[in-house]
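Annotated sample (chain length 145).
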Amino acid sequence: MKLVIQRVTEAKVEVGNKIVGKIGKGFLVLFGAGEGDTKEQADFLSEKLCNLRVFSDENGKMNLSIKDIDGELLVVSQFTLYADCRKGNRPSFTNAANPDVANELYEYFMNKCKESVKNVQKGIFGADMKVSLLNDGPVTIILEK
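Output written by the structure step:
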């Protein structure tokens, strides 16, 4: 399981010119499920994400979590995180979980995040999405389990 986390001041995802998810200050999370990934991995990563201390405290140090600042999450499924580009110029996605399993893990991950974060928004699994963000910092972190 892979997460690309971007600290943002705002982010949104659109499907067919309609906004389906929108947040203010918090994290835009690109979520990828790989072959053989489990709910235990989702538990670990949701806990890590929600406790990641990368928001500034009163002294300007990265010392606060998304929970500490009452931040928001926008979680977007992205199987392309499992692109294998070692051979040729066309990526292979054979390491990505099959769509049914990936969607189940995606929904499970978001529900785990909702236990710690009040506002968790999402994209639409498998849809052609347009994602916009204003990266804060910029801060971009990759987590894998």
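Annotation: The chain has one domain: 2-144.
Annotation: The chain is about 20% helix and 40% strand.
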